[in-house]
Amino acid sequence: MSESPKPTRYASWTTGKLPLPELAEMKRRGDKIVMVTAYDAPSGRLADTAGVDLILVGDSSGMVVHGRESTVPVSLDEIVFMTQWVTRGAKRPLVIADMPFGSYEESDEQAVHNAVRLVKDGGADAVKLERGGTSVARAQAIVGAGIPVMGHVGLTPQTATVLGGFKAQGRTAERARELVEDALALEAAGCFAVVLEAVPPAVARAATQTLAVPTIGIGAGVETDGQVLVWHDMLGFYDGRAPRFVKRYAEIGEAIADALGRYAEEVRSGSFPEEQHTYRMPEEEQAEFEGAPRPSS
Ligand code: KIV
């Protein structure tokens, strides 16, 4: 890459961090917002280098990193740690920490307490929570405490059981209307953007045209204000079944398996390590060392 892929025309650029109000400006200008998940410092650094605008420390980590079958068991501590790691690597992108299931459902107080933890201990710039319903009041309470909130409607993995599984949402006119209303309610609560997951393009189009704040799609077609993909899915680094909306931009899993296979072969054959991988000692020291009697055990 010879030229930096980072857009440089931010009106309010100050310290190198993408300013949050710039997202609304990007929507107004029609500049697409690029978001990806990340879970550690090298990934945060690579996303920053590639010019990604938003990084989500998603609870998808529960499945793609930690091998669980759902996102439900992910804990707040896990998200706090991963957010610390990602923010050490990513400087320009806004880092959004996912509020895991059980960290905001009980009360506005619980939601504010845990969102503050993600910002203070994790270093997150913003938080994300799922669903409409009671999450609207939670979002409003967190925004009221001074923390930016991203909403998330459509397929909401934390409540996939209620939705009948990991299935596309909004495929009836009634459910489509509900989803747009949920997105509007989250905007009214103060959310700075709303993720639309696994919904037909007609639903995404209606939400994107109705909302003043940006929509970020995942499996929602091309007409949203931005797109998000899960790191391991898009890089071919997850051996679970990826949803149909995933495009694989690389086959990193295959590259790693190939590299490990060659390493194993070279260790077994004795062709690794080579001369350039080993340390030398001065010859006279070596001669003295090798000529001296060995210490007895
Ligand atoms: O946890 C996650 O990665 C997400 C994205 C799929 C939006 O919520």
Strand proportion, as a percent range, falls in 5-15%
In one word, what is the shape?
A: elongated
**Number of distinct beta strands:** 8
**How many separate helices?**
12
Rg for CA atoms = 24 Å
Mean pLDDT across the residues is: 94
Helix % is 40-55%
Q: Segments where pLDDT lies below 50 for 5+ residues?
A: 9-14
What is the makeup of the main sheet?
8 strands, parallel, barrel
- Walk across the major sheet and give the strand order: 1-2-3-4-5-6-7-8
Which class of secondary structure composition applies to the elements?
alpha/beta
Bound molecules: 3-methyl-2-oxobutanoic acid
Provide the succession of SSEs: HEHEHHEHEHEHHEHEEHHH
Distance between the termini: 57 Å
Please tell me about this protein's structure:
By secondary structure, the chain is of the alpha/beta class. The chain contains 12 helices and 8 strands. The longest helix is centred in the C-terminal third of the chain and has 18 residues, at 252-269. Residues 9-14 have low confidence and may be disordered. It binds 3-methyl-2-oxobutanoic acid. Residues 37, 56, 58-60, 98, 152, 195, 197, 218, 228, 230 line the site of 3-methyl-2-oxobutanoic acid (KIV).
